[in-house]
User: What shape does this take?
Amino acid sequence: MINSEHTAIMLIAVPLLGAFTTAVFGRVSSSLRNIWVLAILASTELLAVLLGVNVLEKGINVYALGASFPTLTSPEGFPVRIILEVDAMNALISLIACTITLIVVVYCLGFMRESRVLDKAYTLILLLLTGMLGLTLTGDLFNLFVFFEVVSISSAALIAFYVHRGQSLEAAFKYMVISATGALILLFAVAIIYSQYNLLSMAALAASIKYTFLDEVALVLLISAFLLKAGSVPAHMWKPDAYGEAPAPVAVMLLTSALVSLYVLFRITYTVFNPVTPTIGWTLALLGVLSIFLGVSMALIQTKLNRLIAYSAIAEIGFILLGVGSSLTQSPHTSKVGFNALSGGLFHILNDVLDLGLLFLAAGAIYYLTRENNMNRLGGLGKTHPVLGVFFLIGLLAVSGLPPFNGFASKLMIYESVYFFNPLFAIIGILGSILMAAVYVKAFYSVFLGVFPPQELGQIPKSMLAAMGVLALLILVIGLYPATVIKYLITPAADALINPGDYIGGVL
Amino acid sequence: MNLVLATGFGFWNPIVFILTLMLLMIVSYLIWRQGEENQGEGIQGNAFFSGDLLMDKGVQAQNLYWGFTSALREYYDWMIKQHTGIINDYVAWFIALTAALLLLVVAL
Assistant: This one.
C-alpha cells in the first residue's frame, strides 16, 4: 500500500519514470511496451484517485521535497523548499488529466498501431502528462515555469508527429515560438515577484503580497502567459494550426493542457493575488465573450473538421473564462451568484474536455477510415459506421449545451449567474451556444449524412471504439447526475479556490 | 444520488426532462400512425440546389449557411485577413493583449 504522504510526488514521478523507460520496453517488444504504458497510466490514475480521496477526507496535502519529513515546509519559519500543495481544486484537475491521458493512450493502441515511432509518441505523451501534473500540483512559482516548459516541449514534438507533412512541422514551429514567448513572459513575472519578496512559494506569497505597482505588472504578465497557453482571444491563433495538424489523440492532450493552464490562471488570481481587483474579472469575462463569438463564428466557415473543432475549443474556453471572470467581480465568498458562476466555470472545465475530447477522437476515427479531413470530400459515414455517428452525435449535443447532456448543466449555471452580472454577456453566451449547435449540425451533415463515399472503408479498431465509448458514457452519466458531480467534485474545488487561507495555512 | 441540480435561481432535473421528452415522442408517434401508409409515394420531385438540379456530390460543407456568411461578409473578410498564419502576427497579437491588460489593470 502506498503511503498517502508520498502520493503527490509519486503522481509526478510515476509518469516521468514511465516516459524514460518506455523506449527500453519498446526495444523488447511492442506488446510489452503497450502493457507497460497502460500499467503506468493505470497506476497514475489510481494515485490521482487516492490523492483526491485523501484530500477530501483529511484536507490539504502538502509535500516538501528534500525535507526530512514531507510536511516540514518551513524550516526556521521560512519556506525555501520546493513544495507540492494539493487541495480539492488541483486534485480534481490532476484526476481529469490522468483520466484523459489513459483514454488517449487506449485510443492510440488502434489509431497509431502502424506507426513506427510509437515509442517516442508514448514517451512524449507521458512527459506531457508529467508536465501537466507538475503544473497542477506545484506550490512553487519557479517550478510552474519549469513544468510550463516541459508541457511546451513535449506538445511541440507531438504536434510534429506527422513529420513528413510540412504543415505539421510548421504548426509545431509556431507552437514552439508562441510557447517560448509565453514562458519568457512567465519567467519575467516570477523574477519581478522574487526580486520583491525573496519568495517563490505560492502560499507564502499569498500571505505577503502587497499589491504594489510591480505586483500588478507581474500579475498581468502571469495572466497573459496562461491566457496564451489556454488559447483565449486574441492569443488564440496558434490553436487551429496546432489542433488541426496534430493527430486527433494529441489534439485531446493539447486541449487538456489548455485547461490545466486555465487552472493555473485561476490559482494565481484566486489564491496568490487574492483578492484581485474587479477589473481582472471584467477583463476575463470580456475575453470570454470575445472568445465565444470569434470561436463559433470562425468554426462556422471551416471545411476541415479538426480546425472546426479547434475553433469551437476556443469558444468553449470562452465559456469557462466568462463564468470564472464573472465570479471574480462578485466576491464568491459572500455572493451566491459569484459562487455559482465559479462552480459553473469549473464544471465546464470537466465537461469541455469530455465533449471536445470525444469530438476530436471521433474526428480521428473519421480520418483513420477515410484519410480525409476535408468535410467537402466526406459524406455518408452514418450508413457505414453508425456507432461512430452516435458517438459524434453525443459529442455534438453535449458541446452545444443541449439537455440532458453534461454541457447543458454547466452552461445553465454560467448563464444564470452571468445574467445577474451582465445580461448582455449572458445573451451573447446563449447565442454562442446556438451557433455552436449550427456548427456541429453542419459537421454532422457533411460527414455522416449525404452522398455515400465511393471508396471501400475498413473497420474502426476496438480500442478506438472503447476510448470513445468511455467518453460518451461519462458524458451521459454526468448529464444525468450533474448534482452529484457538483456536490462531490466541483463544490469542494470551488471552496478550495475561494479560501486562500487554507492554502496559505498548509505551508506556513 | 441527488438528481436535482439547484442552480441558485432555479433547478434542473434531467430525469423529468427525459420523461417529458419520451412522452412527447410517444404522442408524436401516435399522431404519425394516424397518417396513410402510402401517402407520398411516386409524387416526390427532384432535389434542387440554388435553382440547379442537385449533382451527385450533394450539398457540401462549404455550401451550408451560405446566407449567414454572405450577410456577414465584411466581418468574415476582416477576420480571415487577421488570421494570416504568420507567426510574427501571432506574437504581435499576444503583445497587444499584454499591453491592453497592463493598461487596464495597472494604469487605470
User: Anything to note?
Assistant: Residues 82 and 238 of chain A are 32 Å apart (CA to CA). The longest strand of chain A covers residues 61-64. The mean pLDDT of chain A is 91. Chain A touches chain B through 63 residues (CB under 8 Å).
